[in-house]
Request: fold
Amino acid sequence: MKSLEMKKIKYITLALLGVLSVSSCKDYLTVDPQTMVDQQKLYTTETGFKDALTGIYLQMKSSQLYGEAMTMTTMEHLVSSWDVDVNTTSEKLNFFNYTDAGVANTFESIFGAEYKAIANINAILDHIDEKKDVFKPGMYETIKSECLALRAYCHLDILRLFGPIPSNTTEGNMLPYVTSLTHTPNAGVSFSIYQQALLKDLDEAAALAQKVDPILNFSLAQLSNPGPANAFYPSDNYLAYRYLRMNYYAIKALQARAYLWFGNNEKAYECARVVIDAKNNDGSLKFRLGTSADFANSDYVLTCEQIFGVFDNGLFKRNDAILATLRKGASSTTINTQLYGSTGKDIREVNGLWKTVTAKYALNKYKMNTETSTLKQIPLLRLSEMYLIAVETAPAGEAQQFWDKFRTARNLGAFTLPTDAAQIRDQVIKEYRKEFYGEGQAFFAYKRVNAAKSLITFAPATATVNYLLPMPKTETVNLDR
Reply:
């Protein structure tokens, strides 16, 4: 999949995206009737559905989404992760200046890209049930479950970015939860209706995946090495490399993230435990926390922790072209002291995750030794997040166990959690800032708890924190709200 198959996917889906994608920013919640005719021709074979779904994954790694803006750049500028030049869009993001034209355009691009991905997912879902007879056994369930979960993934990020603060859902945008292609505008819905629709998608996705997903029966190593002489030899290699697709455990992890956002700690904990406790047939853990040994092998994205990520064959060049310009501080002091607290042992602090480049401190997370490296994965759901969710939501007495395991993996000593839930949450939020640097998760962590500026590491002294983004202007008109 990471060689010949990836090349084939690239060329097939570039053509598909031209067929499936809507035509302009003003149309990302609508569809041209002519496009619907084209789709009727596409969705007549299993191969057509597979190619269309592969196109969704390629969309997700675009620079407007998880290949850059939603992970490395825009979302990180919102929490001042990188040094910026004066009077740039990046600086305006540091100050939460949503009225700036450059900032508005940036968020409009993200908003449009998310809903374009959703539109293309809905194109598949609108046809899959009526064409159920074109699929080999298990493939209908596989494709439909991935589509439902990807639709939920995109909608959750739209809500986390453009929606209300979870503790006060009466203020903020009403957003559309779009479940089918239409040539008419989609109306915004209440927070509770949005929540119900999202959780419904995930419940259905989990039920379908649990019936057929090979990740339940094979290890990640086996899934990445299919063949006639190996333990995993599927009739269709489309079922390999499940950690690069929205697999069953990714759905459970996304449920944990969603339930946490919606304030259902009991369900968040239940789903996080499914992932944490997942085992292979030999009793070994399905996913493990990364350690200094992984960093020593230049695996700074901790592929062992990735429950779901996107494979970007151009990540080596992207790192040099984009991440090479992203720096924080003129020396290690800024990161080691302000971010990690100068522990002298935290693997994120001392084991090569950061290095000095041209008098600036640079993140090595997406740096790999060679262009042929197999570590070109951008993490979208990681095991460490499940541990942090468990620490925050576990019943009394259990949180410390997860906290200890997480800290041990990061080479940190024992630290007794406070008994107060709010203080535990503050400890967890600090770890989100350290753990997911360059992955776009810190802003969401701060917004979820409506964190004060004092908790936001590197926030400018004169900034006024604002978690409520305005609706993109074009959509204020286009949405029937």
